[in-house]
Write a structure and sequence with these properties.
By secondary structure, the chain is α/β, with parallel strands linked by helices. The chain contains 10 helices and 7 strands.
């Protein structure tokens, strides 16, 4: 079981002056942490000064690079054996932090899963539910909250995947998916969530599609057959069905049906090659650890 004294708390923040002091103070009261790092991502307000006055160590980015870039800076800077990441907008309860950290040891990554009712709009609730369902299917692991920014992990694990993290808002999803597909033990701990301070910087229409692409990208890297086989079967089914229909109605097989069947075979073979590359990559990673 991990202890707060071995855990660095990383709080990425961009223009969170309204609530950052309360977040830092709440975290300080929650436990004797190794350090509390606020990564000020080029804020134009006094976020850095208020965080520093509340007792945090502030690492300031010279300009706004994005949430993922701030998290990567925190991962590289943290001195603790374990690391807790939480948002700087006040929606995560500091009293839940120790529960997440306490499960490390048994698990490599613990994600704070928010109740669906805390999502800001019905559209966002629906979008997150669809993402969670698709992620669960593609990873063969129940994903309760793919986009939660509240998580605890071994620092070594996060540094292993830091090169994969985008600079934008999908870094949390990337960490979760990569850890699951790499065979690490991942748990989702139910947590309550509060009303955030200020307005959300995530835009559903703009960033939702990026989450889908990240999901497909990470799963393709680790388990490509979970993508290629369903696509191949869909093409094969369409080709065979169209061929049967044209045989019945036109007494011949059209070029379109033949092309769909050939394309299904090609997609399947590409999937096999991709799977071999993924296996070699994982073997090389394992030998590197040794």
């Amino acid at each position: 079981m991990a202890e707060p004294t071995d855990t660095s708390v990383v709080i990425p923040a961009f223009n969170e002056a309204a609530g950052i002091a309360a977040v830092v103070e709440g975290v300080r009261q929650a436990g004797p942490w190794r350090e509390i790092l606020v990564i000020d991502d080029g804020s134009t307000d006094d976020t850095a000064d208020r965080a520093r006055a509340a007792g945090a160590l502030v690492v300031r980015q010279p300009y706004n690079k994005g949430l993922g870039a701030a998290i990567k800076r925190g991962i590289r800077t943290a001195a603790g054996t374990h690391l807790l990441v939480m948002d700087g907008d006040g929606q995560h309860r500091p009293e839940d932090a120790r529960r997440l950290v306490a499960r490390l040891g048994e698990y490599d990554l613990v994600v704070g899963a928010r109740p669906a009712a805390t999502q800001a709009t019905p559209g966002r609730r629906l979008g997150n539910a669809l993402l969670n369902q698709l992620a669960s299917r593609l990873t063969a692991h129940r994903v309760a909250d793919l986009t939660s920014g509240f998580r605890a992990a071994r620092t070594e694990l996060l540094r292993e995947f830091v090169h994969m993290l985008p600079n934008g808002f999908s870094s949390a999803a990337t960490i979760t998916l990569a850890a699951i597909k790499a065979g690490y033990s991942v748990a989702f701990e139910p947590t309550a969530a509060r009303q955030r301070q200020g307005s959300s910087k995530i835009r559903f229409a703009r960033d939702g599609f990026k989450f889908w692409l990240i999901l497909l990208r990470v799963v393709t890297i680790y388990s490509p057959l979970r993508i290629f086989v369903p696509v191949s079967l869909l093409l094969l089914g369409g080709g065979l069905g169209y061929a049967f229909w044209t045989i019945v109605t036109e007494t011949n097989v059209t070029d379109t049906a033949a092309m769909l069947i050939m394309l299904s075979v090609l997609v399947f073979l590409i999937g096999l090659v991709s799977d071999q590359i993924a296996t070699l990559r994982m073997d090389a990673r394992g030998r590197g650890r040794e």
